[in-house]
Every structure is written in C-alpha cells, then in structure tokens.
Amino acid sequence: MRGEVSDTKVKVRVYSQANEASVFYHGELVRGVSVFGSFSSGRFNRGVEVLPLVRSKAYLLSPEQLAAVNSPVETAGAGFRVGVLAGHDGVDVKLPFNALFASHIGIFGNTGSGKSNTLCRLFTDCLGQRAGRGGSKFVFIDFNGEYTARTVLCHDKIVYEPNTRTGVGGKIPVPLDFFFDVDMWAMLAKATEKTQRPFLKRCIRKAGAILEMSNPGACLRGMVRKLLEGYCGCGPAFDEQREDLVKLFSLIPGEDASSLERALDSVEVFQKHNNALHKRDSGKLLYSTADVPEVFSDLGYESMDYSSLASDKPTLLEFIARCRFIEAVRSHTITREHIAPLIQRYSAELGEASKLYEPCINGFEFDVSVISLLNVNLEQKKVVPLVVAKTLYQFQKARGQNERGSSAHLIVDEAHNILSYSSQRESENWRDYRLETFEEIVKEGRKFGMYLTVCSQRPADISPTILSQMHNYFIHRLVNDEDLRAISKAVSFIDGANASMIPVLTQGCCIVSGTATTYPVRVRVDPLELEKQPMSFDRDLAKAWGVE
To answer: Cα 419 vs. chain centroid, distance in angstroms?
Structure first.
C-alpha cells in the first residue's frame, strides 16, 4: 500500500554555524572556538593531536600557561623578551633569539604609534644581551639623526655624520674598489647604454690601470704631454677647448684656474701659418711634438703634482674622464653633445662621493655603526643606503660561508624613503637598480647571514617584494586603507580578528606575527628610559606653553 502527501509546504532553517566549535561560559554560548595546540610536560606545542569531545570541560589558562602559549621558547626562562601580552599585565612575551634576529623584520605604524620605540627597544635589548660576543655587524641607516646620542642603542658604537654641504663629518667606509664599480657609477651618472656607458667604462678601467703601475705620476705626466702634442696641426681645436683644458688642469693639486687661464692665453692660433699654434712672446710655432715644451712653457705641465693627483681616486677618475673627452672630441671619434652632459653628471657625483665615503680595507670596524643622514642632501639620501647595503652585503657574502657564526644586520628606519616604486625624483633605471639590490638582499641574504630590518609609517610605499619577504612583523596602528591592504596582502599570518584591531591599537601596542610566534599576538612594548629613547618622542606643548 502506498500513500502520498500533497500540497504540504516544509520550511527548513539552515544554521550556518551549526558545525562551529562552541563552549558554554557562565551559561552563555560562545561560538567560533578553535583548537590550535596542546600542553605536554608543561610545554605548549602548536598543532592538534586530539580533538575535544562534546561536553568536554573548558578552562581559562593560568598566567603561566598564557605565557607559555605566547612565548614559543625552548626552555623556561630562555628567549628574548619583546614586551607583555596586551591586556594581561605580568605575562611576558618571549620569542626565540634565532627565529627573531636571524630573520628579516618589518616594523610598521603611523607616526606616534610607537614604532621607533619598538625598533630601538628590540636592538637595545639585543645588543645589551649580546654584550659584544660573536662576529655580528649592526649598521643603522638613520635619516633624521634619531639614534646618534651616546646613550641610545649602546655605548660602544661609532656614529658617521657626513655633511654634503660642508664636507666635514665622519666619512662612511667603503671597499677599495668602490670608485671603480662601473655598474653603479653608470647608474649614478645616468649614462646612456649605447654611447655614454662604454665611454665611462673605458675611463674607469684606464684609471684602474694607472693606479696599478709602479709610478702613476709619471704615467699621468706622459698623458698630459701626449694630450698637448695632439694639438700639432689642430690649432682651431685648441681655441675651442680652452675652457675644457682649464677644468682639466684645475683638478691637479696646487693649480688654480686664473693662473691656468693666463698660461693658456699665452698660446694662440697663427692663421698665416696654417692655423698652427704659437707662443705670443717668443713667436715659437708648434710644428712638431718637439716644440711642445717651449710653446706651453708657461703652463708648467712637467712640474705639476701628478703624484698627489694619483692618490686622490675621485679626482683622478674625473681627470681621466676629462682628458679622454678632450682627446676624443678633438679627433672627432665622439660628438661633444653626446658626452659633455655625462662628464658634468659624473663630476658632480664624484664630488659628492668624496664628501661621503672613505675607501678602506677593514670596512665597518665597530660591531655597531649608526649612519646619520640628517645633513645629507635629498639626492644623496637615496644613494647612501644603496652604497651601505651593497658594501655590507658584499662583506658578509665573502665571510658568511666560512664563518658560520657571523652575521650582518642592516636596519633602515623611515624605509619608505628608499624602497618605494612610486618615487618620481629620480630616473626609473636608477630606482630599479636600488630596489633590485635590496630585493636581492631580502631574497638571498639569509643564506649568507645577511638580515634586513625595515621600519616605516607607509608600508604601501614599500616594494611588495620586500614587504612580502619579511619573516617577522611588528604592526602598530595603521589607519590608511592602502597601508592596511598592503599588510593584508603581505602578512598571511594575521587573521581577521587581529587585522580588525590594527586601526585602533594604542600607542606602544602592536601585533607581532611571523615565524618567531606560534600565532599573531598583541604585545605592549615597554617604553625605554628617557635617556635611551631615540629623538622621536612626543612633545608636551601644553607644558611648554604653560596652559596645563
């Protein structure tokens, strides 16, 4: 027998959270509870081995257990203390030393959120606990002179404060071959690929070859003699290049432009003798190379101080470039308009570099170095971090494979100044070259023991490649939508609940997430003592104005 029911409507209500874990607490149902670890022998282990049964009892963690969950260290009392668990005074958050400092670190937050205190606190405590042991180098790029005070970071540090306006201040150590890096100087001088770069490369190689000679001064004297001999039969070219010759000889120590101009004015073109050069007072004509010493006797080129010229690498490089430029224009192998702009840019960059850098063998001798860019012009503020990064990376690559206990830590505050793709103040090639250098460090540096720490108030301006390659993040308050999106794309460790807290974090409070933590944790970083704080504290204007 079979029956049917018709014309009957059935309503079904679907509970979307029916399968979510939940607990009863004080008679109230709390949904969305998840299991992510367990305790074994007093130690917290991340990962699920056994799921709780229905109606299993749930307990609040004790302060000791809470500390163990948020401090994934090997043994009790070990690890590096970064602060206290937000909302739980007395519960310290400790992270493993290796997982934190043998990693790339990103510290982000709006102005006044406490990111500078976090950066300074991390490395002040790190350097204090390290106490000079191990073969590690710490180099801080300080755009605003915040870390230069003797009591900040540590006492045993060296501070470089170059000044592009006066040329005084400590010069930054660079490798001996720094001025002979063709790739970098071609970028700095904005050399075109087809014409200017090959010319610059030949000049740099020529300067290097001269320095390898037993008597560089004699070689330079011979170059000048050959340059002047080239005016035999080229009188009109001499008139066109008087200004170039003055600039050339002015580079030699002890020579001044006014004296050189008078010496060159004593030589003129004699049109009646096939435009040959002749000396005004004696009438001596430049018919052959043997006539050069007498015709140019007032110039005194034979007795110039070429040895001192050879000892000054930036000046020597400019001298070689100008000398070869004069010869090439005279022989019509290059066009003046093609190379003259390069000479001017190259000269300007060499001049700035001579104020900022000092080639040396030992590099950064102190374990802790602070490079203040407070008195460096805007253009060089983008160049110096690149030079320092390349120098430190090459140094660490050379020793990193053999010295397994060595490391190099480059810390860049206000990193958005140099790691942004959106900068419009420089050429695209130069910007890409700088970013590629830092991206190589963040991608390949770990295997050599090279670690990068960046601190910025605008993570959206940081290269996405660099942002995504950080191992550990300290995220303070951020309110800009672009910054929040950049963090959400780069930091996969942060869940929705913690992400929603970022815009409302209090000063000094941050979300710590990454390979050093078991899960994202909100931490209140302890403020440093006043004398140890960087020069970025909030000013009490009400007190200063007497309106309290």
So the answer is: 8
**Residue 265: exposure state from Cβ atoms within 10 A (0-12, 13-18, ≥19):** exposed
Is the pLDDT at 310 greater than 60? The verdict is: yes
> What is residue 321's predicted lDDT score, i.e. its pLDDT?
93
Please, how many CA atoms are within 13 Å of residue 2, restricted to the half-sphere of its CB? 0
Percent of the chain with pLDDT over 90: 14
Asked if residue 521 has pLDDT above 90, the reply is: no
CA dihedral for 185, 186, 189, 195, sign (positive or negative):
positive
In this structure, the strands spanning 172-174 and 37-40 are unpaired
Q: What letter would DSSP give residue 419?
A: S
**Distance between CA atoms of residues 519 and 517, nearest Å:** 5
SS3 81: strand
Dist CA 224 CA 230 (whole Å): 10
Interior angle at CA 210, CA 291 and CA 384, nearest 5:
125
Q: What is the pLDDT of residues 455-484, one digit of tens each?
A: 998 888 888 888 888 889 999 999 988 888
Beta bridge partners of 158: 369
Q: Give the C-alpha separation, 131 to 156, whole Å.
A: 10
Helix (H, G, I), strand (E, B) or coil at 118: helix
What's the distance, Cα to Cα, between the start and end of the chain in Å?
93
* String of DSSP letters for 250-297: TTSTT--HHHHHHHHHTEEEEGGGTTEEEETTT--B--SGGGHHHHTG
Q: From 164, 142, 531, 90, select the one nearest 379 (Cα to Cα).
A: 164
The backbone region for 8, taken as left when phi is positive above 0, alpha when psi lies in -120 to 50, beta otherwise, is beta
Distance CA 523, CA 68 (A): 14
Q: Sorting pLDDT into bands at 50, 70 and 90, what band is 434?
A: confident
* 325-347 mean pLDDT: 89
* Residue 107: how many other CB atoms lie within 10 Å: 25
The pLDDT of residue 202 is above 90:
yes
Of 515, 369, 389, 388, the C-alpha closest to 442 is: 389
Tell whether the model's pLDDT for residue 2 goes beyond 60.
no
Residue 206 has pLDDT above 50, yes or no: yes
Q: 371-400: per-residue pLDDT in tens?
A: 999 888 888 888 899 989 998 998 888 887
The residue type found at 285 is L
What φ, ψ does residue 40 adopt, rounded to 5°?
-140, 120
Amino acid at 204: I
Parallel, antiparallel or unpaired: strands 172-174 and 357-359? parallel
- CA-wise closest residue to 508 among 113, 120, 116: 113
Question: Would you state the pLDDT for residue 66?
Answer: 64
What is the dihedral sign for C-alpha 436, 437, 438, 441?
positive
